[in-house]
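Translate structure to sequence.
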């Protein structure tokens, strides 16, 4: 089998998606997600100008060799743009291999390790009352795990909270909008929020919370400690993770489980966190961390250190990424949980998929390959529109982590 063509499809059905399609001489093709929120065109250029010309004529069955060629062979290793491009190629090649084998992808990955995949959804509100209302709605929809984010009293707008009663979509502007942040007000409010959620909804529902990189290690230690009575499933991204060693300080102070890794693109970004048992869940996902091939390596490594998977699954990851992630989740031994932030109907209209939701759980479906595809004629109706993620400033104007 030979790769004879490949193309990049960019569309914006309510948000931007980049999709790679790899076509073979035997009529089989595969698709992979290549969306990097707010920097989509950089990946498009990386694929079109460099990767696609190198793929033509290669045997698509040699997934590992092509992965190494695009990683080692480039000299400039790692980085979100290159690794997202590699992920798209890798996902499309696993799709082709599974189609050639006439199997759903999870069968090629070792078969299923479980019957169904627990997902968590998002509940967010501008104030305590509306946040509690959204948690109640999620529980009514059958979710067994809910991520809770809430507007902070006295702070205008924050991460994870919709400003306009529409579904939360952070890349909301042509150029970045500016949010405000107060660590003090947040730290005073967050434990009260979770006390109320537990009081109202009891102990059985899994609760998650995303700190979104905004604290220092000692502040994160305080938060983790104060949230202990509400036994969170996890506290996500408590601090930026360039300094992996800094998690030791958080770990020494709290038993609240920690999840990190949605912005990582390499196994090396999480090596110290995993081998020193500084985290409980690794959030690397298919599209931003080099595809199924590297995700399998990360999961196997993590399994040695009691770390489970918790793949990122926000709406900026397309249904193609979601499909591939669900095959991975189904097969991997040390699965923890999968994020599910539902795409809008308009976004879903561009993609076909076989995965389905039943009562808090997903299954990837039995379609051949990963089971997701893009409808190019519908995609054409939604041209690319630049949209950036916000930036964040402290109340005195200092630029902070968003
Ligand atoms: O802010 O995917 O846990 N989910 C997240 C996401 C990220 C977006 C950035 O593109 O933190 O909402
Ligand atoms: Co997050």
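Result:
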């Amino acid at each position: 089998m030979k790769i004879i063509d490949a193309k990049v499809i960019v569309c914006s059905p309510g948000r931007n998606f980049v999709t790679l399609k790899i076509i073979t001489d035997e009529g089989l093709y595969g698709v992979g997600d290549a969306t990097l929120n707010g920097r989509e065109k950089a990946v498009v250029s990386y694929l079109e100008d460099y990767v696609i010309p190198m793929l033509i004529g290669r045997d698509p069955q040699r997934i590992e060799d092509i992965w190494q060629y695009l990683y080692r062979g480039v000299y400039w290793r790692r980085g979100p743009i290159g690794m997202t491009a590699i992920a798209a190629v890798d996902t499309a090649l696993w799709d082709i291999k599974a189609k050639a084998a006439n199997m759903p992808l999870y069968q090629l990955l070792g078969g299923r390790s479980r019957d169904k995949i627990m997902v968590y959804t998002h509940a967010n509100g501008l104030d305590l009352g509306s946040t509690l209302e959204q948690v109640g709605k999620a529980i009514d929809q059958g979710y067994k795990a809910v991520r809770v984010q809430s507007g902070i009293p006295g702070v205008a707008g924050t991460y994870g909270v919709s400003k306009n009663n529409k579904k939360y979509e952070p890349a909301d502007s042509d150029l970045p909008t500016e949010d405000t942040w107060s660590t003090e007000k947040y730290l005073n409010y967050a434990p009260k929020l979770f006390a109320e959620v537990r009081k109202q909804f009891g102990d059985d529902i899994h609760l998650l919370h995303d700190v979104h990189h905004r604290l220092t290690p000692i502040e994160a230690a305080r938060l983790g400690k104060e949230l202990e009575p509400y036994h969170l499933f996890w506290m996500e991204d408590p601090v930026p993770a360039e300094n992996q060693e800094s998690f030791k300080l958080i770990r020494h102070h709290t038993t609240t489980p920690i999840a990190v890794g949605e912005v990582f693109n390499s196994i090396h970004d999480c090596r110290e966190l995993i081998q020193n048992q500084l985290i409980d869940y690794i959030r690397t996902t298919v599209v931003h961390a080099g595809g199924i091939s590297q995700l399998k390596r990360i999961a196997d490594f993590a399994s040695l250190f009691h770390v489970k998977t918790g793949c990122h699954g926000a709406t900026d990851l397309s249904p193609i990424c979601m499909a591939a992630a669900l095959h991975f989740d189904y097969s991997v031994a040390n699965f923890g949980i999968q994020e599910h932030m539902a795409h809008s109907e308009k976004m879903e209209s561009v993609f076909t998929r076989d995965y389905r939701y039943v009562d808090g759980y997903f299954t990837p479906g039995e379609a051949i390959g990963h089971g997701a595809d893009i409808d190019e004629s519908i995609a054409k109706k939604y041209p690319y529109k630049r949209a950036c993620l916000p930036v964040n400033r402290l109340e005195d104007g200092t630029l902070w982590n968003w």
